[in-house]
């Protein structure tokens, strides 16, 4: 295994790339403000003939994600399409009509149920659980849900996780996501279905959207993923068979502070399977 260096520009990696699958939170914005140079980089790649699919573990439909991006100043021209774990979760609900749902998550995620035959009930009456996040991610952690999850386990309920992320940036803080609750339920012995990175269905959907936009399939060797999480972005890209540009300004920023080059041992310790390259923040 060779050393892993930082690169300065996205254009140094895209000579043989037709499709970019870019993470959103941590790459394009931090939940409070967008990153103009990252948006410009993706837009420029598109202007030069590339296709950009934003691939996100947001537990909301793509149109809701788009509205949030607009509020943060991310122009529609930055990308070709969005695929979210919320969309895939909606497909699960649609495939189970008439079943009752116990929902764990904040009110802002309610769009995940919009237009669906989804009946929300207390845990004791539910057929399965959907977790889009914590009720109050400013103050809670997964441990606050242990008693609820033990009751769900006693009823052998399946938990559908609409956001496999454990934590995400919000400004300069890290907050817990639905993945933290889902992992605790799995540790307790519960059955969990994950939608989103690093699981394969979200990548398959992203490539289907890329094929629609380009009018033809793209070889995986000509696809580059961009992300800031080892657990979701890097693992998902590796398992799907595509390269990843790892952005270090995100949730792992403290681990990379002051580092200019990683030796082989550090690469293996931090990543396991190394990304194609490192970049502090996305620039063209």
From TrEMBL:
GO CC annotations, alphabetized: cytoplasm
Short name of one Pfam family: Hydrolase_like
GO molecular function, one term: phosphatase activity
Domain of life, per lineage: Bacteria
InterPro entries: HAD-like_sf, HAD-SF_hydro_IIA, HAD-SF_hydro_IIA_hyp3, HAD_sf
Keywords tagged on the record: Hydrolase
CDD domains: HAD_like
Entry annotated with the keyword Methyltransferase: no
NCBIfam families found in the cross-reference section: HAD-SF-IIA (TIGR01460), HAD-SF-IIA-hyp4 (TIGR01459)
Protein name according to UniProt: TIGR01459 family HAD-type hydrolase
């Amino acid at each position: 295994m060779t050393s892993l260096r930082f690169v300065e520009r996205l254009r140094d990696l895209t000579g043989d790339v037709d499709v970019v699958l870019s993470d959103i939170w941590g790459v394009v914005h931090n939940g409070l403000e967008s990153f103009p140079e990252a948006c410009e980089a993706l837009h420029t790649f598109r202007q030069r003939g590339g296709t950009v699919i934003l691939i996100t573990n947001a537990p909301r439909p793509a149109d809701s994600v788009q509205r949030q991006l607009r509020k943060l100043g991310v122009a529609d021209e930055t990308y070709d399409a969005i695929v979210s774990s919320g969309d895939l979760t909606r497909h699960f609900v649609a495939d189970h009509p008439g079943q009752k749902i116990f929902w764990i998550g904040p009110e802002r995620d309610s769009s995940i149920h919009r237009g669906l035959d989804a009946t929300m009930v207390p845990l004791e009456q539910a057929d399965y659980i959907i977790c889009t996040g914590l009720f109050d991610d400013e103050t809670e952690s997964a441990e606050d849900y242990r008693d609820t999850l033990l009751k769900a386990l006693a009823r052998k309920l399946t938990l559908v996780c609409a956001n496999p992320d454990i934590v995400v940036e919000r400004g300069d803080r890290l907050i817990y996501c639905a993945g933290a609750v889902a992992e605790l339920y799995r540790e307790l012995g519960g059955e969990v279905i994950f939608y989103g990175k690093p699981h394969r269905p979200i990548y398959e959907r992203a490539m289907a959207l890329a094929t629609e936009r380009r009018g033809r399939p793209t070889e995986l060797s000509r696809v580059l993923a961009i992300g800031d999480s080892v657990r979701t972005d890097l693992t998902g890209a590796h398992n799907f068979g595509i390269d990843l540009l790892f952005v270090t300004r995100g949730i792992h920023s403290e681990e990379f502070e002051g580092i200019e080059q990683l030796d082989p041992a550090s690469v293996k310790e931090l990543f396991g399977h190394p990304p194609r390259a490192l970049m502090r923040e996305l620039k063209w």
